[in-house]
């Protein structure tokens, strides 16, 4: 009976999509109830019905997403795509540290369907709602924070699903029942809660919001330049040489004053556990700005995130 109800819902979605670009054909929509064994090639060597994937969540209060690599169970009546979206809705695991979920409360995934390289994901109308801490009239800062979270929410979908090799782009659909307009495609008003019904294009992978080695190096140097020692500590790798927070803050403050920087794209080692980003540093000197060209900013992986060793960080901050 559950499969019948799901198939009926998918048929309803297909009808409501009529008139939209790239409407999923019936043969593709049926995939969501029949393709229990369609597991990505990334699962080779894993137990049947499991998927190893990087799930992207927000890192602390930053404007970036960080991955949590997890084994995802794929039920007999669902596709890998739907299983990954459901895992994003449920949020990071208990050992996630600073990772936080991004979907509004009560959001549910109703269906997934593929057409070519595009994955269509249908959510219920809770996807359009407010976050739990958004109530009453919001300040300008709260509105900006909400817009950032919603953009990161969309970026987490595209980053997770494209990295799993399941699609090249994602079209978000929202089933809004009686209030449904002419299309189920996500409107631009989702981002700023403005009511703007202009339809958003399919999502593509946005590397600008991912904590790649380049972006991690940017966050580290911005924290140094702004003397945001708490943020800098978050990107300092754990180890025997890393002191407690206040002692680290004092050591950071004793370092040089960064007034500008530039970064190369960076390279990752063959083992995937270390990376180097070339940094052009400009420090405040006694006689004016003091350039430090081509400094190798070294990063290591820790719990899936890029961090700097404390000793490397202090050595970099002591350049003169």
How much of the sequence lies in strands comes to: 25-35%
Number of DSSP-assigned strands: 11
* SSE sequence, one letter per element: HHHEEHEEEHEHHHHEEEEEH
Regarding quaternary structure, what we see is single chain
The chain-level mean pLDDT equals 85
Give the count of helical stretches.
10
**Low-confidence spans:** 1-43
Verbal overview:
With 320 residues, the chain is of the alpha+beta class. It contains ten helices and eleven strands. It has helices at residues 2-16, 26-29, 31-34, 80-90, 140-163, 189-192, 213-225, 229-234, 245-253, 310-317; strands spanning 50-59, 65-73, 99-100, 109-115, 118-124, 169-175, 258-263, 267-268, 274-285, 288-302, 305-307. The strands form three sheets. Strands 7, 8, 9, 10 and 11 form a five-stranded antiparallel β-sheet that branches. A three-stranded antiparallel β-sheet has the order 2-1-3. Strands 4-5-6 form a three-stranded mixed β-sheet, with helices on both faces. A hairpin with a 2-residue loop joins strand 10 (288-302) and strand 11 (305-307). The relative contact order is 0.11. The model is unreliable at 1-43 (pLDDT under 50).
């Amino acid at each position: 009976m559950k499969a019948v109800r799901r198939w009926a819902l998918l048929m309803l979605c297909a009808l409501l999509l009529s008139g939209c670009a790239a409407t999923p054909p019936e043969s593709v929509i049926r995939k969501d109830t029949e393709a229990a064994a369609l597991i990505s090639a990334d699962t080779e060597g894993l137990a049947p019905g499991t998927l190893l994937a990087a799930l992207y969540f927000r890192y602390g209060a930053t404007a970036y997403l960080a991955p949590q690599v997890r084994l995802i169970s794929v039920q007999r009546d669902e596709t890998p795509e739907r299983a990954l979206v459901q895992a994003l809705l449920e949020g990071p695991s208990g050992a996630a540290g600073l990772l936080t979920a991004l979907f509004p409360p009560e959001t549910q995934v109703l269906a997934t369907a593929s057409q070519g390289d595009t994955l269509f994901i249908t959510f219920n109308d809770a996807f359009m709602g407010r976050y739990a801490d958004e109530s009453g009239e919001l300040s300008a800062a709260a509105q900006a924070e909400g817009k950032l979270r919603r953009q990161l929410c969309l970026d987490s979908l595209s980053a997770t699903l494209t990295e799993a090799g399941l699609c090249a782009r994602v079209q978000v659909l929202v089933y809004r029942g009686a209030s449904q307009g002419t299309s189920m495609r996500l409107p631009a008003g989702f981002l700023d809660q403005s009511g703007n019904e202009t339809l958003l294009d399919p999502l593509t992978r946005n590397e600008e919001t991912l904590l790649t080695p380049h972006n991690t190096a940017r966050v580290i140097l911005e924290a140094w330049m702004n003397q945001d020692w708490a943020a800098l500590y978050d990107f300092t790798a754990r180890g025997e040489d890393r002191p407690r927070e206040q002692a680290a803050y004092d050591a950071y403050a004793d370092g040089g004053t960064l007034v500008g920087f530039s970064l190369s794209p960076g390279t990752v080692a063959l083992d995937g556990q270390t990376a180097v980003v070339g940094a052009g540093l400009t420090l405040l000197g006694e006689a004016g700005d003091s350039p430090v060209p081509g400094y190798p900013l070294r990063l290591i992986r820790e719990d899936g995130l890029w961090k700097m060793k404390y000793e490397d960080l202090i050595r970099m901050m002591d350049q003169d």
